[in-house]
């Protein structure tokens, strides 16, 4: 494409097109930008899961706007809240590093756009949490995420994350044990 490229960032197309959004190759740049944006939105949602499982705090933080709205009420019973992104990241990393392993799967991304700079991604999820030294070693959640994203100067970011848990297997108590492990490590 002659060195010109699309990005998931403001400005999109890297060069001038012809009238009607067509580049001189006859490719509709609006359609191409839509595909680039879909991929970029999906990448953020996948990066969220990857960051959790790799315990990469900076990568996880990079997924969100500041502030961020979080609704995990279907799991925690606590109401949705808008908070500084660092508070959200701290709350997640007060629990998850206490597990021996986790695996968060994000599939079937259905992405819709509300204008050029807003998107919603609904994705199916399954999240496995493992503690080896317990009688019941796992707690697995299934359901879906509804992530609302905005285009920023740094690319697409999640501005609102809603988790809808539809099923759970295993021991929910593992979360309290994982939290204790994190506190013990920090104290010791």
Protein architecture, described:
- The chain is an alpha+beta fold and 188 residues long.
- The chain has a single domain (19-187), classed as Nuclear Transport Factor 2, Chain: A.
- It is built from five helices and six strands, in the order ααβαβαββββα.
- It has helices spanning 29-54, 57-61, 73-76, 85-92, 174-187; strands at 64-71, 81-83, 101-113, 118-130, 138-152, 155-170.
- The chain is elongated and about 65 Å long.
Q: Key features?
A:
single chain; Nuclear Transport Factor 2, Chain: A; six-stranded mixed β-sheet; 5 helices; elongated
The level of helicity is 25-40%
The N- to C-terminal Cα distance equals 56 Å
CATH top level?
A: Alpha Beta
Number of H/I helices: 5
User: What's the domain count?
Assistant: 1
Shape: elongated
Q: Low-confidence spans: pLDDT under 50, at least 5 residues?
A: 1-5, 11-19
Mean pLDDT: 91
Q: Could you give a short account of the major beta sheet?
A: 6 strands, mixed
Provide the gyration radius in Å: 19 Å
- What percent strand? 35-45%
What is the third-level CATH name, the topology?
Answer: Nuclear Transport Factor 2, Chain: A
Q: Could you give the count of β-strands?
A: 6
H and E order: HHEHEHEEEEH
Query: Quaternary arrangement of the chains shown?
Result: single chain
Backbone structural class = alpha+beta
CATH architecture: Roll
- The strand line-up of the biggest sheet is 2-1-6-5-4-3
